[in-house]
Amino acid sequence: MNTVNLKEKFCLFSEYWSPKIVGELNGQNVKLAKFKGEFVWHKHDNEDEMFFVVDGILKIEFRDKTVTINEGEFIIVPKGIEHKPVAEQEVFVMLFEPATTLNTGNTESNLTKHKLDWI
Question: Out of 3.40.50.1220, 2.40.37.10, 3.40.50.2300, 2.60.120.10, which CATH number does the structure's domain 6-118 have?
Answer without folding.
Answer: 2.60.120.10
